[in-house]
Amino acid sequence: MKNLKFFPFYTLSVIPLPILYLLSDVMFVLVYYIIGYRKGVVNNNLKIAFPEKSDKEIKRIERSFYRHFCDMMVESIKTLTMGKRAVNKRIKIENEELITQLYQNNKSIVMYSAHMGNWEWNAFFPNFFQHKVTAFYQPLSNKYFDELMQLIRSRMGVLCVPSQKGYKTLMKLQQENKLTLNLIIGDQSPSAHPKASKYWTEFMHKKTAFLTGADVISHKSDYAVVYPQCTKIKRGVYETKFVLLDESPKSSEKFSLIEKYSKALEENINKQPALWLWSHNRWKLSA
Fold first, then answer.
1. Which stretches are transmembrane (predicted)?
2. What does the alpha-carbon distance between residue 212 and residue 229 come to, in Å, rounded to a whole number?
């Protein structure tokens, strides 16, 4: 059996979430207090993003982030075996009608998403929408974990597309008359190479470089652009509200979508700061 090599993860995945959260609690103590995984990066990022907050407030957000981070790890493993009933219980869509209306208007969508909430659970979107769902990703160097992540993401019907082949794949699907909803994560830090494409804007109190891929693809394709605003209602339950950034971006100014996206992401972060991935070095580049 092809997936037999992932047996240890399947074994973990069949464990009920309340018990997996006990494992998450243990992981939190290990990751935060003993290993101290990227604590320097997290603390520095939080101080940049929230200069008005006291050290006590920063520490509170920091601990909440690590608790959420550990929860997300076990939730992602649970994705391997979650059924539709469990998905509907744990994923709430506030305004599903927006996506339905775009489908009826014959519009494909760029879902300009971020490392907010449990972004891996966006793999459940095929359960809710008529669009063919694709997800752009950067292949991992470790082949085993790259295959595992593709398995997790594609189980419900998501087509995983290497970022380098993204636009070409979308055009192929368009030629096949398929309406697509395309998940593109836009909050990674661009390459430091001087020729690497990047756009600078004010974000969380600091000039920040953004990748330009989603903006370029949206303008070329004229797909509607939506930001999925994520809220964590309680442990293991997330709500998404879709924010329409542009219905016909082809006529919009270059990089206008990055401006709109960065503002939507900033608003989302300010509502629930612990849900963003503070452990990546978002501000390693200087303007």
1. 12-35
2. 20
